[in-house]
Amino acid sequence: MKITPEQFREISAEEMADKDTQSLLKRLPETLVTLRKTSFNDYSDPDAARRAGAGIRAGALEKLPHLLETFEKKAIEKGATVFWAKDAQAANQHIVRIAEENNISYITKGKSMVTEELGLNDALMANDIDVFESDLGEFITQLLESPPFHILGPALNIPVARISDIFLQKGIIDTPEKDPAKLGLAVRRFLRAKFQHLQMGVTGVNMAIAETGSLMNVENEGNIRMSKSCPRIQVVVMSLEKIVPTITDALFLLRLLCRSAGGQDLGSYVSFDTGPKKQDEIDGPEQLHIVILDNGRSRIYRDPVLREVLRCIRCGACINICPVYRKIGGYPYGWAYSGPMGQILTPSLLGLDRTRHLYGACTLCGKCKDACPVGIDHPKLILNYRHRNALADKTLNGAGVSWKQNAVDLACAHIAAHPWLWNIVGASLRKGLKPYAHENVIRKGPAPLSDWFKYRDLPLPPSASFHSQWDRMQTSHSAKIRQTKGLQK
User: Fold this and answer.
1) Which parts of the chain have pLDDT scores under 50?
2) How far apart are CA 51 and CA 277, in angstroms?
3) CB-based contacts of 195: which residues, under 8 Å, 6+ apart?
4) What is the rounded distance in angstroms from the CA atom of residue 29 to the CA atom of residue 33?
5) How many whole angstroms separate alpha carbon 130 and alpha carbon 127?
6) In whole angstroms, what is the distance from residue 149 CA to residue 153 CA?
7) Which positions ≥6 away from 82 have C-beta within 8 Å?
8) DSSP-derived 3-state class of residue 384
9) Cis amide linkage into residue 448, ω under 30° from 0
């Protein structure tokens, strides 16, 4: 699902008015942030660990073409087949072709953001191939036909009663159930029956290792392992930036990934696959197909500024710390990638003209940059997107801003450049907005500010500017000092 700016605002307003969503957003992100901070205390120098992670990712991008060629060579030597997909259509057609050539009627999927980017489920079902998400949260969102709410827990916001209803409707359970553990058990039984006769599984990849041609996955449920070890055919979809040079690099980034995502020293299940199973092995696929996806990433790679986007390891640390996500949740982003991660990835992949609502919905507080374990400067990238968009037809996609918005921007810039004018406007606004305050909060205002207040609240400004209050305080302080010195004399 890719949404319009109007839908972004509408869904954001709905989520901010939803009591269950707001209750979750007050608890979940802060809990994950706390766990992350605690887990990083295991490092003698956490900042040095993050700098090292940034160095590994930056170095991998510098040598990306060479590393991808090395990976392809090693993977083929180990018995895998490698397909280079220019875009989503090419990737989907290739995976459908593998399924049709092997008479596959259904597949299971491990949790994978890149296959959501592809719209793979829709492509398979359009060709009469059933798809079953094997991650519990993804399984629920698939039944509800909704995007993921959070990278770690795609369905954490869904009430138990609603899950029970959809499970009843889809035949997962026979009677209503209020116990979450029993609902989870019902899904486990349903999927185990699918795994038992599974012929083809599809997964993503957390990291691909160039020196060995290996694929690494990390998870907490074990469903990815089932989708890899049960079927005779395994298809792995990896976006081309997932490459790292060595196993040592992968293990170092793995520690950063798990700590940044959920505050874990290590995920519950970590698996490495190098080629299909050997003749003397009893587990693993007979065929291993690796799809290396471009889908716009080569264009991003050629841009020296945007290339930094490709460092992302999908840990979600930036999501948990983001003040915007913590108000609206994942649904308004409308795609696989939410929060600051989505605000830098989605515009690069879909185009600046279609995603202005994403990079416009940022406070530039910089918390995402501080949290990122691989050194991505999200605010810098978002400002760059805004700058390119403001250049009108000089942007990547020819998207500009309206004359009205341009006039407002120029007026604000002029006011900000002249302190005397800034003081006059500030005094007028403090006085003019006061009648619109209710309980010291302004939720609506006069034109031309009425549109701004549709989506924002503003604390009632003080009666005097900071500088005025500071000057009064300093004057009062100086007077007290003089009085004290006079008494001492």
Assistant:
1) 393-399
2) 37
3) 108, 134, 226, 227, 230
4) 6
5) 9
6) 7
7) 72, 75, 76, 290, 292
8) helix
9) yes
- Tell me the three state secondary structure of residue 131: strand
Q: Tell me: the pLDDT tens digits for 405-448?
A: 677 778 888 999 999 999 898 888 888 888 888 888 888 888 77
Pairing of strands 441-442, 458-459: antiparallel
Structure confidence at residue 472 (pLDDT):
87
Q: Which amino acid does the sequence have at 255?
A: R
Q: What is the DSSP letter of 463?
A: S
Looking up tokens 């392992």, which residue turns up? 225
Q: To the nearest 10°, report the CA torsion of 160, 161, 162, 163.
A: 50
> CA-CA distances (angstroms) from residue 68 to 75, 184, 194, 213, 293?
10, 39, 34, 10, 11
DSSP letter at 307 equals: G
Name residues whose C-beta falls within 8 Å of residue 453's C-beta, 6 or more positions apart in sequence.
442, 443, 444, 445
pTM: 0.87
| Dist CA 263 CA 129 (whole Å) | 37
pLDDT at 1: 55
Q: Which two tokens stand for residue 22?
A: 């707001």
Q: Tokens in use for 175?
A: 């009677």
Q: What is the CA radius of gyration of the chain?
A: 26
pLDDT tens digits, residue range 395-409?
A: 444 445 567 767 777
Q: How many CA atoms lie within 13 A of 320 on its CB side?
A: 26
